[in-house]
Amino acid sequence: MMHMTLYWSRYVTLLVDSWRTDSWLSYFLSLAACFLVSAFYQYMEDRRIRFRSLASSSASAAASAPADAAAASPLLLKAGASRLARSARLGAALLFGLNSAIGYLLMLAIMSFNGGVFLAIVGGLTVGYYVFRFDDEGVAAVVLDNPCACA
Fold first, then answer.
1. What is the CA radius of gyration of the chain?
2. Is the model's pTM score more than 0.85?
3. TM segments (predicted)?
4. Residues 120, 29: contact at Cβ < 8 Å?
């Protein structure tokens, strides 16, 4: 039976029918897994933001290269910069896809409406943010200059 309100019980089904808890040990191991995946989500978000920042700074550095360096080897500079930009964009897209998948799985786990799962995921996100992303506010402001929340 799927709960439609928040409940507190050690009996919970997470994501798939085979992930059911029927004892305190399996319940606490599931909560620990939710906590760790939530913290890992914040770690991957930090890596994605830093990777995107690195990609945008390398692209802007290549675009603003000195004129004498561009005159000395114009074809090599442009080809190397575009290859680096393409691989950086591909890496950022892959990290975004992985982060999206983890985020949706966490959302689905919270939709089990179990109070312990909810607290474990919110706690993992909080601890993960504190450990991995507390220092990236300046980086995020540079990278995420789009005012649209969905971008």
1. 21
2. no
3. 24-44, 90-110, 116-132
4. no
